[in-house]
Write a structure and sequence with these properties.
The chain has 14 helices and 19 strands. By secondary structure, it is α+β, with helices and mostly antiparallel strands. The strands form 6 sheets. A 7-stranded antiparallel beta sheet has the order 16-15-12-13-14-11-17. Strands 2-4-3 form a 3-stranded antiparallel beta sheet. Strands 6-7-8 form a 3-stranded antiparallel beta sheet, covered by helices on one side. Strand 13 (208-219) and strand 14 (223-225) form a beta hairpin. The longest helix is centred in the C-terminal third of the chain and has 16 residues, at 375-390. It is elongated, with a radius of gyration of 25 Å.
């Protein structure tokens, strides 16, 4: 995005890409569909940035969601808006986005060099170029926009942080965000592969609920994953044992009273069956042995012998299924990296370093990150535009 706009502003642009093809990380965003932005006002974008939102005011005002949508549609990629104002290509293919970038870079004459940048060339406090594979490339300014440390096989191996530190910049603590969560509960592995749809997942910090959303999630051999879990993970700022816990409402469309009536109907049809067989229509098959165990009701107890109190506890378990959380999965499994180059050392209007003239930053390498929904790519595009304008 920065290379395209810098070239459109009449600048001569070299783009360094360590991979054989551009946009490898873009191709896997949004499950390969590429959620390019969120079709909502700037205020909504800022509300979805838990880390350093004020830093984004200037660049969002220059290049926001409307500009992003126009940009891609003018490049021949029609877009559509889905639930949660998420914006995708009509084709549902991230490849259309990377190919559109490729065509425009070619049209503008941007030269792409498929080499890894090893160091910056800094003279008298000014960045005047880069070194790549023992070769020097001189320039009027340099932009570091090579992502964080998540999904390193796409090329984002943390090089940007090393380059920034060589210019005197501070890199804040790097943590995974939008990442699967590890649970000590053995029943997660017992339900491995079970995908839950239309459930409400809530995240608690102690007794305080800090996240709650309806959607999909998945049980895995290590704990939990899926869209709801990734979103919840970005609200965890200081992971400690027993501090955070998840609660799943397996039947969010039903009140406690409606659920109890439903359970009574199921029981009425299975009066002489064992309890474990009497709830087959209520829950997914993989979940039934786990719920039976957690309910405290013996699996072989006859349905007609279940008391009102036992039924009430079963209803509470279905409306508030607990999952303990003990940690994040590794950063290379995270969608984004939380942390990065300190915003105190970057001019928010121009994206230029306050410590080294001619050095600019854009995207995930900066200490700004957002929740899922297209907000992180918009941060990347807005900061890229601001940098391109001022380089």
């Amino acid at each position: 995005m920065a290379a395209v706009h810098a070239a459109r502003f009449g600048k001569s642009v070299l783009m360094f890409e360590r991979n054989d093809h551009i946009g490898r990380k873009l191709r896997i965003t949004g499950k390969g569909r590429c959620n390019v932005t969120n079709d909502s006002p700037t205020e909504e974008h800022l509300r979805n940035i838990p880390v350093n939102p004020r830093f984004m005011y200037s660049s969002f005002s220059m290049f926001g969601a409307d500009e992003t949508k126009s940009f891609f549609e003018e490049l021949g990629v029609p877009l559509k808006t889905e639930r949660g104002n998420r914006v995708f290509p009509v084709s549902d293919s991230a490849l259309d986005i990377t190919e559109a970038f490729g065509r425009e870079l070619k049209r503008l004459g941007v030269k792409i060099i498929h080499k890894r940048v090893s160091s910056l060339i800094i003279e008298d406090g000014t960045c005047v170029g880069v070194r790549a594979v023992n070769e020097e490339f001189r320039s009027g300014s340099v932009l570091i926009a090579c992502g964080g440390k998540s999904y390193p096989n796409t090329g984002s191996t943390g090089d940007g942080y090393i380059l920034a530190e060589s210019a005197g910049h501070t890199v804040t603590e790097l943590k995974p965000s939008l990442v699967p969560l590890v649970s000590p509960d053995k029943f997660c592995a017992e339900m491995m592969g079970l995908s839950l749809r239309n459930v409400t997942l809530s995240l608690y910090n102690g007794e305080k609920r800090i996240f709650s959303e309806l959607g999909e999630m998945l049980f895995t051999h290590f704990g939990v994953s899926g869209p709801l879990v990734l979103s919840a993970s970005s609200h965890i700022r200081d992971m400690q044992p027993d501090r955070y816990r998840l609660v799943i409402d397996l039947k969010p469309a039903l009140s406690h009273e409606q659920l109890d009536a439903r359970i009574q109907r199921d029981f009425a049809e299975n009066l002489n069956r064992d309890f474990i067989n009497g709830i087959r229509r209520l829950l997914p098959a993989k979940m039934i042995p786990v719920v039976v165990k957690l309910s405290g009701i013996a699996p072989e107890q006859k349905v007609n012998g279940i008391t009102r109190e036992q039924r009430r506890k079963l209803g509470e378990l279905i409306k508030a299924f607990p999952v303990r959380i003990s940690g994040f999965r590794p950063i290379d499994e995270a969608i984004i990296t939380s942390g990065g180059i300190s915003v105190k050392e970057i001019d928010p209007k121009t994206m230029e370093s306050k410590l080294c003239r001619g050095l600019f930053f854009a995207g995930e390498v900066i200490d700004v990150d957002a929740y899922t929904g297209g907000f992180n790519l918009q941060i990347a595009f807005s900061t890229a535009y601001a940098a391109a304008l001022n380089m």
